[in-house]
Design a protein that fits this description.
InterPro entries: RsmH. By secondary structure, this protein is an alpha/beta fold. The chain is built from 13 helices and seven strands. Helix 1 packs across helix 3, helix 2 crosses helix 3 and helix 7 packs across helix 8.
Amino acid sequence: MFKFSRLKFLKSLDILQEDNPILKKHYPVMHKEILERVLAFQKKTFKNNIDMVDCTIGTGAHSSILLENVKNLKILGLDIDERMIKNLPQNIIAKQDNFINFYKHKTLSDTKYFDIIFADLGYNINQVYDESYGLSYKKNSVLDMRYSQSIQYTAADLLNNRSQQELREIFHNYGNIHKANQLAKIIIDNRQKEKFERANQIIDILNELSMGDQIMKTFQALRIAVNQEINNLNLFLEKVQSQQIVDKQLILIITFHSLEAEAVQKFIMKFKKQFSIKIIKPSEDEIKENPRSRSAQLFEIINKSI
């Protein structure tokens, strides 16, 4: 059993936090489990050099820990958020791109396939705390919800232009909102008087409907719709499948809510005879230290021959 060095982990975060204040509140979920699996993969495959793509590199927390602890590992990072790329440590090579396009990029060793494909589907917590990122739903926040300025439309655009049926489906399908149709109807009525621009306009409606406990789910639904998260996840999985998950390749995906987990589970069912599939949940200690990790699931997909 690999013994994880917490001292090394803290050192890795210290390196990241130098001149990089954005990471100070962010905690890389299941970092220990990720590291254990990468080291085990390296040992079992006898690979001297490993090429990995971190499809959602964010501030580089997971990748920095891996680079600190795994010998001869090369990581190419991708992130749709150009602001995240700008804040990465200098030792991480990254490009701005949607994670669905990982297959278009060459490995750092110029080989055909990546040995490890990693995707953390969660957002960086600072994207919510920092209102300039557009994911915040504090009362005076702008109704944006985009991961990147390159995304065509905002949450305000959805609320001001989509039909009642479309809004109902967004709230029902992506947030499991129990009064989805009623919420959609009031939004349609209210936008005739005043365009939606700020988060408090939605929060006020939810409070009027005695739905204050569904504020987070409502904004989750808007975020998923704006960024086409489930559609993009399915496209990503299709591209992973088109790579045929070659021998001696490791796939690691972290999900955070049931819609993501369901999409990944449907994908892995296609490979259950050929591949070893494990679903790992965070330890009790991690949940205590980082409550946000409670809903996380790590999917490990690896060829049974390894």
